[in-house]
Amino acid sequence: QVLFVQSGAEMKKPGASVKVSCHPSGYTFTSHYINWLRQAPGQRPEWMGWINPDNGNTKYSPRFQDRVTITADTFARTVYMELRSLRSEDTAVYYCARVKSTARDDPFDIWGQGTKVTVS
Amino acid sequence: DIVMTQSPDSLAVSLGERATINCKSSQSLLYSYNNKNYLAWYQQKPGQPPRLLIYWTSARQSGVPDRFSGSGSGTDFTLTISSLQAEDVAVYYCQQYYSTPWTFGQGTQVEIK
Hints:
The complex is a heterodimer of chains A (120) and B (113).
Chain A: E1 3-6, E2 10-12, E3 18-25, E4 34-39, E5 46-51, E6 58-60, E7 68-73, E8 78-83, E9 92-99, E10 108-111, E11 115-119
Chain B: E1 4-7, E2 10-13, E3 19-25, E4 30-31, E5 36-37, E6 39-44, E7 51-55, E8 59-60, E9 68-73, E10 76-81, E11 90-96, E12 103-104, E13 108-112
Parallel strand pairs in B: 2-13
Antiparallel strand pairs in B: 1-3, 3-10, 4-5, 6-7, 6-11, 7-8, 9-10, 11-12, 11-13
């Protein structure tokens, strides 16, 4: 069974950074792109970026380009998302999600449980 | 960015009746080289992540009941629930994966009338 387990809730002050982890299991870690998205209360999901765990290549949304870094540790089979210079508008649930196939441009078939980040 | 707009924002349907949700994209999601529309639909219940229902406009994800179906092409798409069940109460989102940044519609809340 494919499972994505994320790290626990975080509470941060404005200006700080947060690093959220995502640990997939049940499939070959390097075979699928992994994306990060966030969802503020009552809002639609918002895509932040993706990583190819096989080679570490990344792509970020222009909205987050200067504040986000996504990394992958193939030995630990874990993907990380760090968001810097936090502000109150970054309060949201952050999700990691796998693309359905081994292609890059595909929908998200497996999602983590979400990590609530509160900036206050 | 491709803007995704859903209608209606909310929908109340009697049990066993049909529910229809529309999604419009600001540009075509059809790639001519493979004739595929890069459009997916998700269901989200409170406190849960979104769940993939439909991809490539009309392909049903494994385990999704066949009362869910998708149609459309280009810029106009539809999700249909043929016979609404109580467990279908949720927010539904369309999403384009034609070009980054991937974007979602604002969501449609489906309730029981």
